Amino acid sequence: QVQLAESGGGLVQAGGSLRLSCAASGDTFSTYHMGWFRQAPGKEREFVAAITRNGFSTYYADSVKGRFTISRDNAKNTVYLQMNSLRPEDTAVYYCAAHSAHWGTFDPANYNYWGQGTQVTVSS
């Protein structure tokens, strides 16, 4: 098993930037593909970005492509989400998640482990 803990959320004005971190503990971090998801009030949890075990491949939702960047440091057991050009519609609780199945799975139901989430609020 792997335990995940997000940090770095907060309040930012539209156009600003934030960097989220997700620290992993427990099982070997480098055996897991990692993803970021978000959930706004009254909406379903949605995929944001994902990265392979070795960090060589990434995938993004169309809504964040070109603005967000996912990365990981396996030596530090941490995955990051750099968020630039933030918009009010990016306001949500952001979660990191892990799974050890084949790459190409971006449905939240296929992720086995989740953090507690961190709130991101973008003011207009």
Description:
By secondary structure, the protein is mostly beta strands. Helix content is 0%, strand content 51%. Strands 2, 4, 5, 6, 9, 10 and 11 form a seven-stranded mixed sheet that branches. A hairpin with a 4-residue loop joins strand 7 and strand 8.
Query: How would you classify the helix and strand content by structural class?
Result: mainly beta
Q: What is the terminal separation in angstroms?
A: 40 Å
Low-pLDDT windows of residues: none
Could you tell me the number of beta strands? 11
Alpha plus pi helix count:
0
Q: Fraction of residues in helices?
A: under 10%
Shape: globular
Mean pLDDT: 96
Order of helices and strands: EEEEEEEEEEE
Please give the radius of gyration in angstroms. 13 Å
Largest sheet: 7 strands, mixed
In short:
The chain is mostly beta strands and 124 residues long.
Keywords:
single chain, 124 residues, mainly beta, seven-stranded mixed β-sheet, four-stranded antiparallel β-sheet, 0% helix, globular
SSE layout and pairings?
Elements: E1 2-7, E2 10-13, E3 18-26, E4 33-39, E5 46-51, E6 58-60, E7 68-73, E8 78-83, E9 92-99, E10 113-114, E11 118-123
Parallel strand pairs: 2-11
Antiparallel strand pairs: 1-3, 3-8, 4-5, 4-9, 5-6, 7-8, 9-10, 9-11
